[in-house]
Design brief:
about 110 residues, mainly beta, three-stranded antiparallel sheet, about 0% helix, Ig-like_fold
């Protein structure tokens, strides 16, 4: 399991824009580099990130081999109602990591 960090406000005022910042530790091997034995290392990247806010997708990103290791993503969404924010990273070799934070709208 990869280590994921999520920086999101715990509370927000209705209608306010919230900045969400995420960072996940992952080597992001492109599949183009040779290993110590001269053979090409198999590709192992995060291919997709999605954020659901109270069941609705508010941000989605497709990631490619040129993405750096330990990808950092930041985006904004409007605080509409209290509820869970579910952040999911998916990748090669069956990789999937989900983190959840609760947002309270005042």
């Amino acid at each position: 399991m990869a280590r994921a960090l999520v920086n999101a406000p715990k509370t927000a005022k209705a209608g306010e824009m919230m900045e969400i910042k995420t960072l996940i530790s992952h080597v992001m091997e492109t599949g183009f580099r040779p290993g110590m034995d001269g053979r090409i290392k198999p590709r192992d990247i995060i291919t997709e990130f999605a954020c659901e806010y109270d069941g609705e997708v508010v941000f989605r990103a497709a990631l490619h081999p040129a993405t750096s290791a330990n990808p950092y993503l930041a985006f904004e969404t409007r605080a509409t109602r209290s509820g869970p924010m579910k952040l999911t990273w998916r990748g090669d070799n069956g990789f999937e990591q989900t983190e959840t934070v609760d947002i309270t709208v005042e």
